[in-house]
Amino acid sequence: MQETEKGSKLYLASIVCVAVLGGLLFGYDTAVISGAEKGLQAFFKGANDFEYTDFMHGFTSSSALIGCIIGSALSGFFAGRFGRKRSLIFAGVCFFLSAWGSMEPETYILPQGKPDWTLLVVFNLYRVLGGIGVGMASAICPMYIGEVAPSNIRGMLVSFNQFAIIFGQLVVYFVNFIILGDHANPVYDAVSGAIINLTESQWTIETGWRYMFGSECVPAGLFTILVCFVPETPRYLAMTGRDDKALAILTKINGTSAAREILSDIKNTVTVKTEKLFSYGFMCIYVGIMLSVFQQAVGINAVLYYAPRIFADMGMANPMMQTIIMGVVNITFTLVAVFTVEKIGRKPLLIWGSVGMAAGAFGVALTFGNQAMSLVTMLSIMVYSASFMFSWGPICWVLIAEIFPNTIRGAAVAIAVAFQWIFNFIVSSTFVPMFNMQLPGDKDFGHWFTYGLYGCICVIAAIFVWKLVPETKGKTLEDMTALWKKGNNTPQE
Asked: Of 45, 136, 250, 476, which cross-links 71 as Cys (Cβ 3.0–4.6 Å)?
């Protein structure tokens, strides 16, 4: 009886945990390349029918992001047409097939272990497929959590999705570290481009990178199976006329009396099932898009994807271990957001995080390449990364999941997240060329220019949040209709 009146926290926790596993896969898939990219690069440099250039390697390392753009752009259609649950099942299947195909791109058809142009194309297609899964999960997982969570803890629960993303990255850092074991990553001679330690790195070049990609099959398979057992979101059920099922789920989560009130609010905001994207003004969509743009333009994923390479360039003895340490720092500061987002609010965390990131980025720009200040450089990178983890990392997803009115949420989230992945691709694919830029007499020009640019963008991001982003702490998803008055270009807080 008490559970009927108050709802079941265990039931809510169980379905949120399954959705959060999608976030873990998101982090796992995007970060697996950090350990595998050097072995993969050396493997394809052995091709005889084409020259595997740095540009090709940058594209191959980032090709999954093309799928992320496609998947996030399609997420609104899938979530609206097939529901949140079925869309997540489809994403899980994409994850699994991509993991297996990236491990064995020959697929028992092409010659095993022979690098050539065809194999490179097939490998990238499998990575794009995984990216489609990531793109869909990145949009729909926080949407799913936001639509099942009570308003008073919604921010915290959606923040757990970011925690899962960072945890997935930390897990894959450990997995890559364990798989590499006593084997070495290939090291290139700066002048000739030849591999210096070919004998020691032969296993990594032939086999190691395959195991790293294949390891994702385990969490991908688990997610695909478990998501079959979670319910559809009550808001989607109500929007498709299945009020009885929606009420039953709301009752399990919130209790009987609260469930009827929430369902009534939902029905009041979905009387028109579809509205034009700009029904609530241009600013509503603009704010959502720019939140996504700034989350990537500050440059964080360039650090996450290329962490071992960055630490190696800093002269660190064990760059993989430094990467793991950074992962631990990241997950610790993500928890700061999880447990403060409902107390402090969304805007203060974003603004303070932007300031911290700017300080860290400028610190790297001023000290990178100076061996006497390598510790300061290392600490600056940690400050930069940690500041992102308690702010833009989780809070951007919270706002994207809750800021849009019910009737345009699917399409608006899809557009916002698509922009996020577009800028993720831009930042990730341009990082290496920018980072390696040199001027006569200034071999470290690219280092300080890159981080200086990211620092300036962080400052602009803080101003954007201060001026334009509304505070949504404590508001229900149905309140978003009133927050964005129709036809107005400013939120009504």
From this structure: 136
